[in-house]
């Protein structure tokens, strides 16, 4: 079982992208498009006050006939934001994401934001662990040494 802290260390780009609650939804969408990501944390200083996702845009702007340029992030962000601690395992995170239908989780330690993990990060880690287990079993079965 991999700890979240190790998943954060293995990320190619550990940058956490964020917006402010008073930014427009259009600005948030532009940042997501520029960075090739599907979610932004909403930060008020050092405090996480929400998360805004492509899903929020689809459901709270597009389907309700609002405009992204005239709507503030604070009006569509998801809150409260569930988070995990660095010692939690990938399996614990996967269960939390599955049970709450989430695709992103901030990693927080003693009130400080350390990073953000996605469902993709967890799937990549779980596949890597399974591949290692399969290789070990194949070596065991065939009598090869490592």
Can you describe this structure?
The chain has 146 residues and is of the alpha+beta class. The chain has a single domain (4-142), classed as Roll (CBS-domain). The protein has 5 helices and 5 strands; from the N terminus they run H-E-H-E-E-H-H-E-E-H. The strands form 2 sheets. The protein has a 3-stranded mixed beta sheet with strand order 1-2-3. Helix 4 crosses helix 5 (119-142). The radius of gyration is 18 Å and the shape is elongated.
Can you describe this structure in just a few lines?
The chain has 146 residues and is α+β, with helices and mostly antiparallel strands. It contains five helices and five strands. The chain has a single domain, classed as CBS-domain.
Radius of gyration: 18 Å
Q: How many strands appear in the DSSP assignment?
A: 5
- Please tell me the total number of domains: 1
- Total of helices: 5
- Within the CATH hierarchy, at the fold level, what is the topology? CBS-domain
CATH architecture: Roll
What about the largest sheet? 3 strands, mixed
Helix content: 40-55%
The shape is: elongated
Chain-wise SSE layout:
Layout: H1 4-10, E1 18-19, H2 25-35, E2 39-44, E3 47-53, H3 54-60, H4 90-100, E4 104-109, E5 112-118, H5 119-142
Parallel strand pairs: 1-2
Antiparallel strand pairs: 2-3, 4-5
Helix pairs in contact: 4-5
Give descriptors for this structure.
5 helices, 146 residues, alpha+beta, two-stranded antiparallel sheet, single chain, 5 strands, 3-stranded mixed β-sheet, elongated, CBS-domain
């Amino acid at each position: 079982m991999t700890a979240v802290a190790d998943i954060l260390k293995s990320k190619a780009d550990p940058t956490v992208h964020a917006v402010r609650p008073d930014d427009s939804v259009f600005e948030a969408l532009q940042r997501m498009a520029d960075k090739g990501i599907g979610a932004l944390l909403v930060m008020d200083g050092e405090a996480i006050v929400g998360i805004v996702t492509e899903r929020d845009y689809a459901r709270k702007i597009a389907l309700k006939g609002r405009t992204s340029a005239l709507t503030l992030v604070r009006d569509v962000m998801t809150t409260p934001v569930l988070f995990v601690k660095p010692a939690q395992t990938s399996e614990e995170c996967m269960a939390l994401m599955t049970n709450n239908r989430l695709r992103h989780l901030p990693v927080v330690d003693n009130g400080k934001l350390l990073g953000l993990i996605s469902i993709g990060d967890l799937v990549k880690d779980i596949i890597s662990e399974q591949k290692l287990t399969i290789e070990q079993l194949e070596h065991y079965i065939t009598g090869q040494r490592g």
